[in-house]
Specification:
The protein is of the alpha+beta class. It has 2 helices and 7 strands, in the order H-E-E-E-H-E-E-E-E.
Length: 103
């Protein structure tokens, strides 16, 4: 899979200064949707990364879900995990289907 393809698959931009780590990411389909992990690294502060992706994902139609500190769109949840790493931050974006209530 080409570098950047997982991030492009969720229609999200790459924050300037960050690089995708395709060797640490994955994506696969399940009966209820897809599951993906996208890992980004670069010289940015965790706060700057969270602000950037909150704005970018909202502009792309994702809705913030403050109860879970995640974003929702088209039956999927995007959960961002940001941690300090050398030389800046490591960002993990987990995508998974939103659990549907039992009928």
């Amino acid at each position: 899979m080409a570098a950047g393809s997982l991030l492009q698959d969720i229609d999200a931009p790459l924050m300037p200064g960050l690089a995708e780590r395709p060797d640490l990411g994955f994506a696969f389909d399940v009966e209820t949707g897809r599951i993906a992990r996208i890992v980004l690294e670069g010289p940015a502060s965790p706060d700057a990364v969270l602000r950037y992706y909150a704005q970018a994902l909202t502009a792309l139609g994702w809705t913030a879900d403050p109860a879970t500190e995640s974003f929702l769109r088209d039956g999927e949840r995007a959960q961002l995990h940001v941690e300090s790493a050398e030389p800046g931050a490591r960002i993990v974006i987990d995508i998974q289907p939103v659990a549907q209530p039992a009928r």
